[in-house]
Amino acid sequence: MRWFDAFMGVGYEFYNVRAKVILIFNNRKTLLNAWNKVIKWWPDDWIKMRFLETNHSYEFILYGDSNFLENTWVFLKALSVSQHYMTFKADYEGAAYLHLALYRPKRDSYELELFDYRKKVSDVLFLKEPLEEPQDRIVLRSRSIIHGPNQSPL
pLDDT, tens digit, for every residue of 23-59? Predict the structure, then answer.
């Protein structure tokens, strides 16, 4: 497994038929590498997106398999629960589009440059701590990475 956390966070957009989950990067080269070397090789139906909630935060876990890649890449980030996340969770209807965006600071604001890259993700789970059901090894390993080696997976 290869762990990837070189993105700033996750954004959500709700204006289309399917909601968008947007990986936000602050470096164009990192964004292009994430797409060209990993995500574009994932077949849509092999991509898994997990949201593991703990108190006022959640862990974003995104991974997929591919016959073209030697390793399983896992995009992993601990994030604060926001109103946008709660809206996405409440409105999720069986699939979402994964997009990539570049964060561009402006004087007192910022803009996101949304790239045309897109994957449809239909294997999405919203999980809560403590985990009630057995999970796959990637979710369990992600928990131990975020929470440190002293916490053993359930």
Answer: 999 999 999 999 999 999 999 999 999 999 988 899 9
Instruction: Judge whether 152 lies within some domain.
Output: no
In a domain, 119, yes or no: yes
- How far, in Å, CA of 122 to CA of 95, rounded? 4
Structure tokens at 18: 């399917």
Q: Which domain holds residue 37?
A: 2-147
pLDDT of residue 67 exceeding 60:
yes
Total of domains in the chain: 1
pLDDT tier at 118, thresholds 50, 70, 90: very high
Q: Does residue 73 register a pLDDT over 90? A: yes
Report if residue 153 sits inside a domain.
no
How many Å apart are CA 10 and CA 144, to the nearest integer? 21
